[in-house]
Specification:
The structure holds two protein chains of two kinds.
Chain A (H helix, E strand, L loop, with lengths): L2 E7 L10 H13 L3 E7 L11 E4 L4 H13 L1 H9 L4 E4 L1 H6 L2 E3 L5 E3 L6 E4 L5 E10 L3 E9 L2 E4 L8 E3 L10 E2 L1 E3 L2 E4 L5 H4 L1 H15 L7 H21 L9
Parallel strand pairs in A: 1-2, 1-3, 3-4, 4-14, 5-7
Antiparallel strand pairs in A: 5-6, 7-10, 8-9, 8-11, 11-12, 13-14
Helix pairs in contact in A: 1-6
Chain B lengths: L13 H20 L6 H9 L3 H6 L6 E5 L4 H14 L4 E3 L7 H11 L10 E5 L5 H8 L3 E4 L7 H4 L2 H12 L5 E5 L3 H13 L3 E7 L1 H6 L13 H4 L8 E7 L2 E6 L2 E6 L5 H18 L5 H10 L8 E5 L2 E7 L3 H9 L8 E4 L23 E3 L3 H10 L6 E3 L2 H10 L7 E6 L1 H10 L11
Parallel strand pairs in B: 1-3, 1-4, 2-3, 4-5, 5-6, 6-7, 11-15, 12-13, 12-15, 13-14
Antiparallel strand pairs in B: 7-8, 8-9, 10-11
Chain lengths: 250, 441
């Protein structure tokens, strides 16, 4: 069996909203395709593996960001190296903020992030909770989940662009931008968890990882069954917000 | 602790309250005739008389006792009420679900006379965190117990620190006694603050390390990241300490002397609720407190509506477990007797953000027979990602129940229904047991 390594960053602090589900989704989809997975959890003070294929980091409270600042900086060089090598990464809300350049905390304290994404977060904004958070992505189409954060986010560097366009909710709070992307690193406010709700994004990360490894990933009816349930979940949220489950053809 | 009854002059005057109470009672009667209870009657009365809650409940000689926490409020309120009654007190309490101001007002309307008289010795009030401060300002509680702080309804509470702030604000309104879970991370931090402040008489309940270790997922409490280094070394004396749980039988040490008792439902969480209720009752009752009376009251208490309760339906035994958040789901599932043979799970629209399903360990299930409710697909997807057969997806609860009840009865004759709040109310109604739920009326 071929093998991929998934590195989950700070699961003890940044999995407050079911974010471990993103790893569950990647593992099961890979297992269904006959690809074995090594799941490495990285908590503060742990050593990083030499080689990784996919990196995930979830969301958590402001207090978690404060205690993780030093640990995130300590692995910043390694994470930026993997970014430059094209390793796919998924960072959700607080995890995205921590992988960014800096976070201005409520009260004005500035927290320096890992510098993987060129983003600056202002975490003193009003809370936004969007029970049907819809974003459109040029290639992946419409993604649906839940938004829950108290921040706005600015893209500050030449290589980092918005991940998608916010159709509902706040997103980054600027120009309908949602999330951030640099090389194969994706940051988003989509929760739900995002990969369970949107298998197209899970497969995108898997395909990037498999391409780097030179292995092939093919889906079967097991994936199709999961995908139809996920579609039904997106439909339920979309219906509640009266939006289309698919991006309208332009 | 007990205060002298207020002189007649300070009782709410009949003149001032006659119209608001009459209006509320009429609305309440109409609501009941229509076949439902609601918080609306209380809303009407509060509109007409904003100080209604305060003026009516200050008649209680033993004051108001608040029950707070992410999980276990209804069960603990029920336990505490049973203990107080066993000690000869007349108790005013709000039924589960009626924990907002208008719900409490509706409950009062059912018992108060038109002249504003309510004969009760003590109020035992379940309070929602988010409305706790407003309710505390109105009811000026003499005592409170806080059970736990768990990750709960993140779409409403956002971050556990915010809930900790709500608890701090509520406790600031308590005049005499606060009882806390020693082994909860955020409550440990709160205890440190209150000890420093020195204003309140504090009491603690807790669990032995062995009891926590024996639970498959511990207490499922939220972590207080910023205070972990400070709080870890402070160990407090507890009156009641849960030592072990075997099904519904809890072994709890009181001042170091172990007692065994059979509770109304299975699991470590019920044992912790019992320890909390007894610790608070002892503080409030003082010399009148009898541990034997308290334990026998708990042993004869029935489970609260839908919390580990078993209903008989056409010869079938249906166990109903409430699914509210990660902690309640996980602890209820952890204490099932093995994988349930016949099981249905239903999720309503009211369960807004179901992300937490992925933080849950669902490996206890060998299969699920039916997933139902408007959000059935979310449960099916979660189970499918653990490669667990989720059976039939039937969003319509009535049809789902029919399918379930018509299927072959398992050898033990028991079926398990795991339902979120709205689906539980609906299921009870469909099964013809809605009379047992008094809701917020």
């Amino acid at each position: 069996m071929t093998q991929l390594t998934i590195l989950e960053l700070f699961p003890e602090h940044l999995a407050v909203n079911g974010d471990m589900g993103n790893v569950i989704v990647l593992r099961e989809r890979l297992r269904l395709a006959g690809i074995d997975v090594t799941h490495v959890k990285h908590n503060p003070g742990d050593d990083l593996p030499d080689d990784v294929d996919i990196v995930t980091v979830g969301t958590g409270p402001a207090s978690a960001l404060r205690v993780l600042e030093a640990s995130a900086q300590a692995i910043g060089d390694r994470l930026r190296g993997w970014r430059d090598d094209g390793v796919p990464m998924l960072a959700v809300t607080a995890g995205m903020q921590l992988l960014g350049s800096r976070v201005i905390m409520p009260g004005g304290a500035v927290l320096e992030g890992a510098g993987v994404l060129e983003i600056e977060t202002d975490a003193s904004a009003d809370r936004v909770v969007t029970n049907c958070f819809v974003i459109d992505h040029a290639e992946l189409g419409r993604l649906i989940g839940i938004e829950n954060h108290g921040s706005t986010m600015a893209l500050t560097g030449p290589v980092t662009e918005a991940f998608g366009t916010a159709v509902t909710g706040r997103g980054n709070g600027h120009a309908k931008h949602e999330g951030a992307r640099a090389a194969n690193v994706i940051g988003t406010h989509l929760q739900g968890p995002v990969l369970a709700m949107n298998p197209v994004l899970a497969d995108h990360l898997i395909e990037l990882a498999c391409e780097r490894k030179g292995i092939s990933y093919s889906q079967n009816e097991g994936h199709a069954k999961l995908d139809s349930l996920a579609l039904e979940c997106r439909r339920i949220l979309a219906r509640s917000a009266n939006v289309a489950v698919d991006r309208p053809a332009s | 602790m007990s205060r002298p009854p207020k002189p007649l002059g300070t009782r709410p005057s009949a003149a001032r309250y006659f119209i608001p109470i009459l209006a509320g009672k009429v609305v309440r009667l109409l609501a009941r005739l229509r076949g439902g209870g609601s918080a609306f009657p209380g809303y009407v009365t509060l509109k007409l008389a904003p100080r209604f809650l305060h003026d009516i409940t200050r008649q209680f000689p033993h004051g108001n006792v608040f029950v707070l926490g992410s999980n276990g409020k209804s069960t603990t309120t029920h336990m505490l009420t049973s203990i107080m009654r066993a000690h000869g007190l007349t108790v005013f309490t709000n039924p589960s679900g009626g924990n907002l101001p208008q719900g409490i007002a509706s409950s009062l309307l059912g018992q108060v006379s038109l002249s504003g008289r309510l004969k009760a010795d003590i109020g035992v009030i379940e309070v929602d965190e988010a409305f706790g401060k407003v309710i505390a300002e109105a009811l000026t509680p003499s005592a409170a117990v806080i059970l736990n702080l768990q990750i709960d309804q993140i779409y409403r509470f956002h971050e556990p620190e915010r809930v900790a702030g709500m608890f701090r604000d509520i406790v600031a309104e308590v005049s005499d006694v606060v009882v806390l879970n020693r082994d909860d991370h955020f409550l440990r931090t709160l205890a440190g603050r209150l000890e420093e402040e020195g204003r309140l008489d504090l009491g603690f309940f807790g669990l032995t390390d062995e009891a926590v270790a024996s639970a498959p997922h511990g207490q499922v409490i939220a972590r207080d990241y910023e205070n972990e280094s400070i709080a870890a070394d402070s160990v407090r004396e507890v009156y009641a300490e849960v030592q072990a749980v075997d099904g519904a039988t809890a072994t709890i040490a009181f001042d170091g002397v172990a007692r065994s008792m059979r509770l109304s439902a299975r699991g470590l969480h019920y044992a912790v609720d019992a320890a909390a209720a007894i610790t608070l009752a002892r503080k409030v009752l003082g010399d009148r407190f009898s541990l034997d009376s308290a334990i026998s009251a708990l042993e004869s208490a029935k489970p609260v509506y839908g919390r580990g309760e078993t209903v008989q339906h056409n010869g079938q035994e249906l166990e109903i477990l409430l699914l509210k958040n990660l902690a309640s789901f996980q602890m209820n599932v952890d204490y099932l007797d093995g994988a349930p043979e016949s099981v249905m799970i239903a999720l309503d629209e009211g369960s807004k953000d179901l992300s937490w399903l992925y933080a849950a360990d669902v490996s206890k299930f060998s299969h699920v027979d039916v997933v139902s409710g408007p959000k059935a697909a979310f449960m099916a997807l979660r189970l499918a990602y653990d490669n667990i057969d989720y059976g039939t997806v039937e969003p319509d609860l009535e049809k789902a129940l029919k399918t379930m009840l018509a299927s072959e009865l398992p050898s033990d004759g028991k079926r398990t229904l795991i339902l979120d709040y709205d689906q539980m109310i609906l299921a009870r109604k469909l099964l013809g047991h809605s009379d047992l739920e008094r809701g917020a009326s």
